[in-house]
Amino acid sequence: MACFTALDYRNKSYPFVQTIADAAGITPISYGCYDSATDAAKLYQFYVGLATIGELTPVTQNCFVQKTEDQQYYLTNEALAAALTPAG
Question: Which pTM value belongs to this model?
Answer without folding.
Answer: 0.86
